[in-house]
């Protein structure tokens, strides 16, 4: 009935039964039809749940571990940030301290040398003192460059936005290097496009620093030829650079085959020597209105040694030079270009260069500035007095005799700044024809038709008009024409030269030139002074003498307190102020200054050193202002102008001086120009 009994197949099962019968055993035997399936689904589900829970736990654990790691990293980052900020503050304080400690004795050295130069010295002693002073100023310049680099790296450098005259800045820069270039016979010149506004708004100090660095490098590496600074509007130069050889004006195309540069030497950038002439053509044809924002294109071209191709990649790296022998041969630290490029980038510009070894280099940069109002410059004695000089020369005309187109355009630019009407001739015969009354001369430019033949007041002849010293013979051709029976009108003949020997000066006088020779580099104020001597306007006071006279007027009879813990600095400052007639008293600490300036007192101004032991200048000033407030409450108004006087060029900023209620700031070693600016601002209000 149940089939065969087979217990080996796993389907048979025996279960014992107990019915309470002691004599019999009962059992129940069952056999399954098939084997019971294993619980795979249950096992799989359980395994899945276990895996999911394990995964969730792992994710939670890893997330917790990651959060802990992020928190730890954040904590470390905060610690590093605090350390970095502390290190940055320490670095700035270190640089400020080092600057103060270096500049303080340098102030004494330069000040004492200046006082020495004001005494009676023989020629040798004068030369020694002047050389020592120049070396000291070079050291101060190096210190300033290192500090500028530090400020750029820390992001603490800020740009001003004040009105300034770019043409005056270029004149000042050329004056700095005229001695070296003139002695070596290097042509140094600057040209600013007519479309560049007279007044711009920006940071004149930093722009001066950029151009001075570029020109200084060119002077350092140039032994012959020229150094040429050009300033145009970016839109004009961008249009010029897009021109193809087919679109070059015929006048320029004829000369493009020759090296008609400023000095005749080849240059690294073949287009740069024509930028002036091509942009000039655009200037005369463009009548578009300029926007409020001005983008300038500044280039400095030289015919120096050039930069080797393998060194051009690292030329803008700080403290790097073309090769290891450069610093030994030419000097310098290699930091100027790095600082200049950083400053250009801060002004939303770019700096580029082209260079050929043995030919020269051309550095160019763009700067974004704003248009200023000419009236905003006022009567500032430190801006170029072009507009004043216009009234003196506006009715005069001049003839420029020069065979070099670029060079003659530069001369025209400077004369037109003075208001003269100018004609350029490059040919000797044409020049002679212009000096013959009622002769028919071909007029090249329509805007020159106001200049009548034979009516020139001045004739300016380039010494090297058609070759070396060829211009010296120009008066002899005039005499030849006169002896030939022609009526020649001989206006004042003035020679323009880059360098002159004593023998050449004698020859020029014998040939009939005026005693006054215009020496390059050309600057408006220098040309005006020469022309005044030639045409008999009188020797009017120069800006430097006016400045000295103004200082004399401001300081004469004033009672001034000088506060400095350094004895040498007190002597230097007192000597500089006494030079202009001031009565000076000195104090060696902030506490002593407070005692002297407690109202009532008779002091007209105070020069306060900032870094002093026990009580610095800021704290002393705050205490003095508190005493003045107390006096004001009692009905007595006291306010003594306090000028910060310090060698700390990082920490002692103008804003910090204002917060302490100081009236001005003079960095040490201070010179006549900045002393005049500071004193005129505070004493003119008293």
TrEMBL record:
Catalytic reaction equation(s): ATP + protein L-histidine = ADP + protein N-phospho-L-histidine
Residues that bear 4-aspartylphosphate: 609
Keywords for the protein's UniProt record, in alphabetical order: Membrane, Phosphoprotein, Transmembrane, Transmembrane helix
EC numbers for this chain: 2.7.13.3
Gene Ontology cellular component list: nucleus
Domain of life: Eukaryota
SUPFAM superfamilies the UniProt entry points to: ATPase domain of HSP90 chaperone/DNA topoisomerase II/histidine kinase, CheY-like, Homodimeric domain of signal transducing histidine kinase
Domain Response regulatory: 397-535, 559-683
UniProt key word Heme: no
Pfam families attached to this UniProt entry: HATPase_c, HisKA, Receiver_CRE1, Response_reg
Annotated transmembrane regions: 41-61
Keyword field contains Transmembrane helix: yes
Domain (Histidine kinase): residue spans on this chain: 97-371
Recorded GO MF terms: phosphorelay sensor kinase activity
PANTHER family (UniProt xref): HISTIDINE KINASE 2 (PTHR43719:SF35), TWO-COMPONENT HISTIDINE KINASE (PTHR43719)
Protein name: histidine kinase
